[in-house]
């Protein structure tokens, strides 16, 4: 039973933009603080941003501040990550999940920043 589905990744040139989406089951999404995470090759998964149940951004990784924006649409059980001015260090597989008591991880969506 798939509960988290990330999409929107791709290959983009440095300085480009992408918008990621994460569709979650209501059981995971409803009333929960949600987060975007990423895992680059050979590195541990790290939290990129998190958002309150009401839609307030609570945290951004220092390296993405001013470039990434997290948002959510509670009617659609979906969170988004708008990523601007991408650079090679943003290359990773991006995942979403509930921050407290995470559910099973989805497949993620690959973001590759390269010229």
What does this structure look like?
With 115 residues, the protein is mostly beta strands. The protein has one helix at residues 26-29, and strands at residues 4-7, 10-12, 18-24, 34-39, 46-51, 57-60, 68-73, 78-83, 92-98, 109-113. The strands form 2 sheets. Strands 2-10-9-4-5-6 form a 6-stranded mixed sheet, with no helix packed on it. Strands 1-3-8-7 form a 4-stranded antiparallel sheet. β5 (46-51) and β6 (57-60) form a beta hairpin. The longest helix is centred in the N-terminal third of the chain and has 4 residues, at 26-29. It is globular and about 40 Å long. The termini are far apart. 31% of the residues are buried.
Q: What's this entry about, in short?
A:
The protein has 115 residues and is mainly beta. The chain has one helix and ten strands. Strand 5 (46-51) and strand 6 form a beta hairpin.
Cα(first) to Cα(last) distance is 37 Å
Mean pLDDT: 95
What's the shape? globular
Q: What is the H-and-E element order?
A: EEEHEEEEEEE
How do the helices and strands line up, and which of them pair or pack?
Blueprint: E1 4-7, E2 10-12, E3 18-24, H1 26-29, E4 34-39, E5 46-51, E6 57-60, E7 68-73, E8 78-83, E9 92-98, E10 109-113
Parallel strand pairs: 2-10
Antiparallel strand pairs: 1-3, 3-8, 4-5, 4-9, 5-6, 7-8, 9-10
List keywords for this structure.
single chain; 115 residues; mainly beta; four-stranded antiparallel β-sheet; 10 strands; 3% helix; 47% strand
